[in-house]
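Invent a record, attention on tokens:
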Amino acid sequence: SEQLSKQLAVLFTEDQVYRIDHYLGKELVQNLLMLRFTNIMFANMWDNQHIKSVVITFKEPFGTKGRGGYFDKSGIIRDILQNHLLQVMSIVAMEPPENSSPESIRDEKTRVLQA
């Protein structure tokens, strides 16, 4: 990824590159944003007055076979917890973004993580 980043930097400025974790590209995670903010049924009820708790479960039906070297270097906690579960949690808990731009969504997710 470092080599790819260097090659992209020659062609594009950083604000022209959209970076997304592979897990966040999964359709279900992307649909959370649509479900939260465009579905009339949920948009008005997705708050602390209507939702008592949220449980985010990570269940992977396959082990780390073939990925051990990656996890040895970066750590499974860093990959799964930091990169995936905290991102999903921030989408679930964030306030509606100002607009649908990546920057507005990022800003709202950051507010959740800073709270």
User: Anything to note?
Assistant: DSSP finds six helices and no strands in the chain.
